Amino acid sequence: MNSINIQELNKYRADTSGCSCLVHFNNAGASLPPDVVIDTVVDYLKEEATYGGYETEYKNIARIEGVYQLIADLIGANKDEVAIFENASAAWGTAFKGLALADGDEIITCEQEYVTNIVGMADARKRGVKVTVITNDEHGNFPLAELENAITPNTKLIAVTHIPSSGGGILPINDIGKVANKHQVLYMIDACQTAGQYPIDVTAIGCDILSATGRKYLRAPRGTGFLFVKRSVQDRLSPVLKDFLAAGNVSLDGYNLRNDARRFELYEKSRALTLGLGKAIEYALAIGLERIWHRVQYLADITRSALNSIPGITVHDMGNEKCGIVTFSVNGIDSMLVRDKLVENGVNVSFGGQQATPIYMDKHQLKGIVRASLHYYNTEAEIAAMCDLLRRINN
After folding, report:
1. Residue 1 within a domain
2. The predicted structure's pLDDT at residue 356
3. Which end of the chain has fewer surrounding CB within 10 Å, N or C?
4. Of 261, 286, 311, the domain-final residue
5. 97 with 120: CB under 8 angstroms?
6. What value does the mean pLDDT take over residues 107-116?
């Protein structure tokens, strides 16, 4: 369903300078930000340069505080359950390491887990933690019955990536949440490709921890991310690094941790980028995440259909429900070369290597794929232009 009319689309594209000079299908890498996001960041930096860093922060403290509420509104959380990070890897790693999993504990994850998360799990295995991978069925769907059967009294965490970096499928995170809650197992979601593309409600999902980045579908600047930690589980995680933002009543005898999720973040970060993140969320919320999601699905469906009609192209996305990430390969041509040819002709796509989602790629014997990730500001004409280029590349 195309949920955005032509007048709205033209406005969103006019709001985005990058749309005037290229076709950007690398939104799963980093979206083109609206001009208002860039203006917010630059204006704040200029104010810092002419007024002073601390003075500018104090002057804008209400706006900076408001970003926490905007994140909470985006994901259906409370403001005191949100921490701001420079990236999602730091957010995810802070939460994961804070669980202090030990010898004999068990983690359950999925086949499309992102490489950075796998690094954390590999470190946990060195401490004697067991990691069980639930692989998708032959249709690309996550088997809930296998998840249920994999849970034991030692299972301490279910940690999954909702939308993978190198595939178009989607995990049923609400249903996984029901299983986790039934067995009283902590539930952690990597929502890097979700935030800004797909509506998130942490209460409906039933998750305890969720991490996300700003640069992808949220259309925020690079160097932004956030972490959600449910209020009732915050005391079960130990902050990995602490400074005076996290601690009060500090002396050599000890300190008191603050009583919200900001105990997990550090004080020093870019206030300009934080405000850029907030402005990007504000922009997305004004459009509506349901409308964005329907538009993205609509464009991705058109793209898959068009690619499937081109001889020699294989689309690799599986599962009953698919997202805005479309992955494919051109028979006989290295996917990195295909990416380079498209970029040379003004169409930004990404190369998905084996290292990004190693379990998924190994299972499907893929060395690399081309990734075209659609957003609501893309057009049918841009899809047609990419397909025309692919026909020429393939001849």
Report:
1. no
2. 81
3. C
4. 286
5. yes
6. 95
Backbone angles phi, psi at 314, to 5 degrees: -115, 125
What's the longest Cα–Cα distance across the chain? 73
**Top-confidence residue, 225 or 353:** 225
Amino acid code (one letter) for 58: Y
The percent of the chain in helix, strand and coil, each rounded to the nearest 5, is 45, 20, 35
Q: What pLDDT is attached to residue 1?
A: 66
* Residues 113 and 160 sit within 8 Å (Cβ to Cβ): yes
Amino acid at 43: D
Closest to 45 (Cα-Cα) out of 274, 280, 278: 274
Q: Which two tokens stand for residue 51?
A: 């007024």
> What mean pLDDT is predicted for residues 285-303?
98
User: What does the alpha-carbon distance between residue 98 and residue 94 come to, in Å, rounded to a whole number?
Assistant: 6
Q: Could you give the 3-state DSSP secondary structure of residue 3? A: coil
Burial class (CB in 10 A: 0-12, 13-18, 19+), 136: buried
| pLDDT tens digits for range 30-44 | 999 999 999 999 999
Q: What is the mean pLDDT of the chain?
A: 96
User: Looking at the 3D structure of the chain, how many domains does it have?
Assistant: 2
Residue 373 counted as domain residue = yes
Same domain? 67 vs 97: yes
Q: Which domain holds residue 313?
A: 6-30+289-394
